[in-house]
Amino acid sequence: MESAKQLLNYISKHVNLTEKEELVLLSKVNHRKYLKGQYLVQQGDVCKYTSFVISGCTKMFYMDNEGQEHIAMFSIKDWWSSDLGSFITQTPADYNIQCIENTEVFQFPHHTQEELFKEIPKLERFFRIILEKALVASQKRIIRNFSLTAKERYLNFKNLYPTIEQRVPQYMIASYLGITKEFLSKIKSKLILEQ
Question: Are the C-beta atoms of 110 and 91 separated by less than 8 Å?
Fold first, then answer.
């Protein structure tokens, strides 16, 4: 299966699994396809899986009391999508994760994770590396939000994630940047004039 190969190739960038370990891993993960608009997890539910994106695109967002969406993250091919706080502690999720496109994932169930770590100790190292990268990215994002202007945040977003802008609506990018879509339009117009 091509999608399984993609997952194993990704893992092999961090740890080397034997053929037997690969088979054990694939027997304990779920392969799922979601339609555009479907949720991987909803705010208030417990996040039972951490998902590796094979194809498609998801958004992770918090919905405030006024019904306003605050997008924290997008996930595309070879990225992870999960409410980590909920997944790790098995408590209600703070975030929703919704598919922006038809999305294919491999899901690592929380209830099999400890078994996997015992059977394939290398996976514990693999997930530590992934979590460290996620933490670093999150901390860098917090600093950018505090220290950069909206224009600088937008340019940084374009630079870091060049393929996402063509795939998601402008209002979602504006939400991710913490600005209105009208303000994002003004920034983009000014940038065109500056060229």
Answer: no
* Gap between the Cα atoms of 160 and 144, Å rounded: 12
Rg (the chain; Cα; Å): 18
**Residue-wise DSSP of 2-71:** HHHHHHHHHHHTT-PPPHHHHHHHHHHSEEEEE-TT-EEE-TTSB--EEEEEEES-EEEEEE-TTS-EEE
Residue 56, pLDDT above cutoff 90: yes
* CB contact at 8 A, 115 and 148: no
Task: Return the SS3 of 94.
Answer: coil
- For 33, phi then psi, to 5°, come to -120, 130
112: closest CA among 174, 1, 28? 28
| pLDDT at res. 10 | 95
Position 192 scores a pLDDT of 84
Q: Residues for the chain: how many in total? A: 195
Whether the pLDDT of residue 58 is over 90: the answer is: yes
Contact 27, 81 (CB under 8 A): no
99 closest CA partner among 152, 48, 60: 60
pLDDT in tens, 103-114: 999 999 999 988
